[in-house]
User: Which sequence fits this backbone?
């Protein structure tokens, strides 16, 4: 019996995983069928050939976006509203129980969608703005500027991103603004590298040479000739970078150095409630699961987009 | 061979310069501190005389370039100065912890690398089958999960619920190896899960990338069996990207271990860094950052040299 | 030859073969019911333009389809075995042992990670036909038979250490390793220069005869197939047009399509001569003692000089690496010469395009080899053509629209139909016409045509050449025509400049250049172009001797 007792949880885990996977497959299938039915012409055609993973990803992303945007209306309680004793168990008012300060866990998870994802989105966008602009200019101009920017990016990228952000955070403090800027600065070189590579493939095309020989200027080349041909991989890369940024912010928050209380944030929620795990509770894992679920979803969609942009020879 | 030699030498030189630039960045970053270190340590309420005393003690009155060279000179011989908090030698507190971190990384790497490459070859061989699709979903899930998520799941099921492994990975230098391996099994497994998924995906991609090559079609048209097409014809040409991925992941094992160390309360350098950051113990932060960056650069360098050496065009010049 | 073949035993019998290709989630038939017979020791030439299904049929003869293709009907009987119903493992055991394949690009088809001889011995060892060491000895003998230099040693090199022509012969040797009954040659000389092509052709023909191997020889080049095949089958878009023995096919083709293929090489524009030396007309473009090198590289152009006069076509001829395209880059200013000047209407051009005025840029336009990469796939046709007109002449609104329609008319594309399409919706020939229209939109006086027809099928190429010729006479354009194809030179050039290794070897009016006596290299180049005569290769080998062709003859 002792032996069996040890194996039961493992079996339960496997059964749960299988169950969750099956449910996910069924849901993705339904969601895809819905999209095929609802979307007009072209979109419906695209969705029909989409893999289930992609439809699952889209579904999750849409769900998160709705939760984030409508958080104050969806969540039953306020973000930092204390309504129970600390670590109060779940009841019919609190779906997931209370956290270490007696705030509603479920409401904080919902608000986390707005805060954690929002900050990651802003940071990624800023990194893209800087990195992609520099990458496009470097690819188009070439020459010494390309060299210098490339070397600079190499150097920044050879400091591990988590370590670099810890170093900078220790110096500049931990406000949301500083966090966003630091992460954007750390990730901009990666975006630069990729944009440089993607547009580098376009820049060698004869049509770019033709445009150069016509006497076209830098901005015309970038806007009209290069960007339209590198849009697809760049959008996919945005998704990928978002995942990295998102995981980094979650990690920093988990270490207590990212988004600061009382703002509801998934990383710090895991940290604050971690003690529950030693009592066999899974509640602290829910915000962590929320992080991985969104990251998986984005990865699935990006994977599908990359496949489409490489597979279609248009 | 002269060719390979000069390429490798050039690469090494470049690595060294990168490291120098990074040491400069790390130094300057601390210089950017509003006020100075003394101000940061003593806070706003410090008296002028206390500040002056601390400045003198830390050598802050020297000009910045001179302080940089002194710091660098110390770093080269392994002397990173004194901790602001404990007043102990930074090197003394880092060394045992760095050894711990390296051991954990090695533990994970020894399991992860062979498993990842063989699984990568297998999914490439069975590409587009159900096996491949399931592997795809699972690896995506694994790389998408924060390390603390995986770590806590493992703790919940393998420690709290079953009691198979300890949840807190306390180790001491005199601990026997077997016990050490058992104590650190869960943190190592967490790392393995993340790293295997990534390496496996990249190995698969590197091989599949080559499958469209005419020489692969030629091998098939010579009647070569499918496994041999992959192992003999695709794999030898995928070494460069695979080596790169392995190095990248080894670097991750050393540097990304921070979160895992915190989850399992493992006495490694990552935890030290996190503590130092929250206590604003700058000499420790600088030292840890430099060590992490150096490890990262060294591994990347090894990867570059490895891919140069596996390139038949460079190994056998015309 | 053909009679002997008919008496021999039948090796391959394909009946009503249909093959489908996968695109946009649908299976589309690409080969529509082909019949094919091949007897032991016979060589069948499969000829057709791109998209004719030659390679697909050739691979199907091995029971193989590429990813995204499937055999949907018909039978393939190889030596009494039905291939379409065999299990995969049995099919695989035929490949390499009884049916072998020689690919178009040997450089890409040899595995870069292994030595040639290790790739050679793979199949014999795998099938237990020979031990590794026996197979190595055999490889060396085959290398010798194929006249590879250092046959004892060359197999121990890696693919990148061996030249293209040699690799192609090593691949033929590899195909012979198990002494197969049938070899499929898939355009084995298409990627090679003409002077190298000959030695490969001669070697392949010899060895196939020696071992009495049956072969399917796939090519788009009629003159080549005439040298190699006993019988020829002409294909068009997955259908058979006709089949006959080589001599009959060349002498009296039955079908209009076949006749039109034969007729391509007959187009010839009337030759223009330079104005008298006395009139002292200034050439449109004068290249004067130009040297050039790429950054930190060796010199690639040495003292190149030639003139291009108004309304005339100068063909720059040479093999790959001869410096033809580099010369064009010097003229356009993409690669500033290290010494020497380029003059335009007598006026010296700034070396880099960045320093040139808008008008200088407008006067010289370029048409590219690969229409696919020359047109931005995301820009509408009207904008591609309209942009130069807008940029240089400041046209806009309805004036611009009228001009674009005028240009589309000029290149014989219906404006209403093509105005707002995107390049990927067009065929190769149509794209090339758009490229021409874009050049014309700038109203230039000089156009560089860089291998403009070499990526196109012969009939389409012919249309482009005729169009260029008509435009030249109506607009009085000067052309610089870069090509490696001497047939194109014959049909369109007024003057010829022959280049080799970055130097001008010889230049002069076309009529003079195509008549002996020549410079030795020009002679080699001219005589290496296959002719539409089944005995051409045999005669040439007799004249020159087997050891004086290809790379051996170049130095």
Assistant:
């Amino acid at each position: 019996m002792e032996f069996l007792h040890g194996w039961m949880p493992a079996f339960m885990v496997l059964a749960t995983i299988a169950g969750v996977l099956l449910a996910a497959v069924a849901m993705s299938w339904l969601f895809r069928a819905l999209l095929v039915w609802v979307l007009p012409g072209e979109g419906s055609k695209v969705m029909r050939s989409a893999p289930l993973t992609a439809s699952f990803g889209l579904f999750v992303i849409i769900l998160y976006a709705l939760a984030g945007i409508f958080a104050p209306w969806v969540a039953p309680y306020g973000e930092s509203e204390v309504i129970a004793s600390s670590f109060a168990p779940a009841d019919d008012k609190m779906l997931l129980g209370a956290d270490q300060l007696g705030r509603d866990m479920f409401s904080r998870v919902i608000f986390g969608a707005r805060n954690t994802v929002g900050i990651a989105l802003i940071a990624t966008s800023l990194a893209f703005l800087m990195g992609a602009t520099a990458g496009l200019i470097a690819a188009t101009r070439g020459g010494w500027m390309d060299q210098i920017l490339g070397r600079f990016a190499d150097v920044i990228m050879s400091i591990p991103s988590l370590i670099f952000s810890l170093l900078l955070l220790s110096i500049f403090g931990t406000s949301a603004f500083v966090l966003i800027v630091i992460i954007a600065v750390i990730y901009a070189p990666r975006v630069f590298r990729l944009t440089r590579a993607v547009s580098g493939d376009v820049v060698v095309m004869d049509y770019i040479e033709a445009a150069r020989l016509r006497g076209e200027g830098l901005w015309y080349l970038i806007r009209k000739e290069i960007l339209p041909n590198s849009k697809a991989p760049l959008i996919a890369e945005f998704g990928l970078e978002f995942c990295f940024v998102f995981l980094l912010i979650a990690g920093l928050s988990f270490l207590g150095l990212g988004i600061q209380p009382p703002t509801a944030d998934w990383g710090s929620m895991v940290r604050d409630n971690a003690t529950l795990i030693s009592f066999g509770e899974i509640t602290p894992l829910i915000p962590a699961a929320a992080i991985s679920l969104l990251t998986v979803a984005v990865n699935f969609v990006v994977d599908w987009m990359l496949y489409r942009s490489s597979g279609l020879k248009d | 061979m002269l060719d390979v030699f000069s390429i490798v030498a050039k690469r090494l030189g470049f690595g060294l310069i990168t490291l120098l630039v990074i040491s400069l960045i790390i130094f300057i970053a601390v210089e950017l501190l509003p006020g100075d270190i003394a101000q940061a340590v003593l806070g706003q309420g410090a008296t002028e005389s206390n500040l002056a005393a601390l400045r003198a003690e830390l050598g802050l009155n020297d000009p910045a370039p001179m302080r940089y060279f002194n710091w660098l000179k110390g770093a080269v011989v392994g002397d990173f100065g004194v901790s602001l908090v404990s007043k102990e030698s930074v090197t003394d507190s880092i060394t045992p912890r760095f050894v711990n971190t390296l051991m954990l990384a090695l533990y994970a790497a020894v399991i992860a690398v062979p498993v990842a490459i063989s699984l990568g070859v297998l999914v490439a061989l069975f590409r587009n089958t159900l096996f491949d699709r399931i592997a795809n979903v699972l690896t995506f899930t694994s790389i998408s999960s924060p390390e603390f998520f995986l770590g806590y799941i493992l703790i919940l099921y393998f420690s709290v619920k079953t009691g198979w492994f300890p949840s807190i990975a306390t180790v001491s230098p005199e601990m026997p190896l077997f016990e050490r391996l058992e104590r650190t099994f869960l943190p190592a497994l967490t790392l393995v899960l993340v790293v295997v998924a990534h390496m496996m995906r990249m190995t698969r991609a590197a091989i599949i990338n080559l499958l469209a090559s005419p020489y692969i079609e030629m091998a098939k048209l010579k009647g070569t069996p499918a496994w041999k097409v992959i192992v003999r014809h695709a794999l030898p040409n995928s070494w460069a990207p695979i080596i790169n991925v392995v190095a990248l992941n080894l670097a991750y094992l050393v540097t990304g271990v921070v979160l895992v160390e915190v989850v399992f309360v493992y006495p490694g350098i990552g935890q030290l860094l996190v503590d130092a950051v929250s206590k604003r113990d700058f000499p420790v932060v600088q030292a840890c950052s430099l060590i992490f960056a150096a490890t990262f650069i060294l591994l990347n360098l090894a990867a570059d040299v490895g891919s140069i050496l596996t390139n038949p065009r460079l190994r056998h010049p015309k | 030859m053909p009679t002997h073949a008919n008496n021999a035993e039948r090796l391959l019998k394909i009946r009503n073969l249909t093959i489908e290709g996968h695109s946009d989630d649908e299976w589309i038939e690409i080969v529509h019911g082909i019949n094919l017979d091949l007897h032991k020791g016979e060589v069948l030439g499969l000829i057709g333009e791109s998209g004719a299904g030659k390679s697909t049929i050739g691979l199907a003869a091995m029971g193989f389809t590429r990813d995204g293709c499937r055999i949907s009907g018909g039978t393939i009987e190889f030596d009494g075995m039905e291939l379409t119903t065999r299990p995969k493992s049995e099919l695989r055991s035929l490949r390499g042992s009884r049916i072998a394949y020689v690919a178009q690009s040997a450089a890409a088809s040899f595995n870069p990670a292994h030595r040639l001889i290790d790739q050679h011995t793979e199949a014999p060892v795998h099938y237990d036909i020979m031990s590794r060491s026996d197979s190595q000895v055999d490889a060396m003998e085959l290398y010798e038979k194929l006249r590879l230099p250092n046959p004892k040693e060359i197999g121990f090199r890696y693919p990148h250490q061996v030249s293209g022509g040699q690799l192609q012969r090593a691949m033929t040797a590899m195909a012979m390793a198990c002494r197969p009954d049938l070899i499929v040659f898939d355009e084995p000389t298409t990627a090679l220069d003409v002077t190298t092509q000959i030695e490969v052709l001669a070697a392949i023909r010899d060895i196939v005869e020696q071992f009495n191997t049956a072969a399917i020889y796939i090519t788009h080049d009629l003159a080549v197939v005439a040298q190699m095949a006993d019988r020829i089958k002409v294909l068009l878009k997955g259908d058979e047009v006709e089949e006959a023995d080589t001599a009959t096919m060349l002498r009296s083709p039955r079908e209009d399509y076949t006749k039109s293929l034969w007729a391509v090489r007959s187009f010839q524009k009337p030759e223009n001569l330079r104005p008298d030396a006395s009139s002292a007309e200034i050439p449109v473009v004068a290249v004067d003692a130009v040297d050039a090198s790429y950054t930190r590289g060796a010199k690639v152009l040495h003292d190149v000089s030639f003139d291009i006069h108004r309304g005339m076509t100068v063909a720059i001829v040479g093999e790959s690496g001869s410096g033809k395209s580099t010369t064009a880059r010097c003229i356009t200013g993409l690669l500033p010469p290290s010494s020497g000047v380029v003059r335009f209407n007598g006026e010296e051009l700034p070396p880099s395009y960045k320093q040139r005025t808008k008008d200088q840029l407008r006067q010289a336009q370029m048409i590219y080899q690969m229409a696919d990469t020359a047109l931005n796939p995301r820009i509408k046709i009207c904008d591609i053509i309209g942009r130069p007109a807008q940029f240089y002449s400041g046209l806009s609104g309805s004036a611009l629209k009228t001009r674009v329609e005028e240009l589309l008319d000029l290149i014989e594309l219906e404006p209403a139909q093509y105005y707002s399409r995107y390049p990927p919706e067009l065929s190769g020939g149509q794209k090339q016409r758009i490229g021409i229209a874009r050049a014309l939109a700038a109203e230039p006086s000089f156009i560089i045509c860089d291998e403009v027809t070499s990526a196109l099928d012969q009939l389409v190429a012919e249309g482009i050449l005729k169009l260029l010729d008509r435009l030249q006479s109506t607009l009085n354009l000067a052309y610089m025509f870069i090509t490696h194809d001497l047939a194109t030179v014959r049909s369109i050039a007024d003057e010829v400049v022959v280049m080799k290794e970055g130097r001008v070897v010889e230049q002069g009016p076309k009529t003079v250049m195509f008549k002996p006596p020549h410079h030795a290299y020009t002679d080699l180049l001219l005589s290496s172009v296959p002719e539409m005569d089944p005995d051409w290769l045999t005669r040439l080998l007799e004249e020159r001797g087997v050891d004086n062709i290809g790379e051996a003859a170049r130095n």
Chain C is about 40% helix and 25% strand. Residues 32 and 271 of chain C are 44 Å apart (CA to CA).
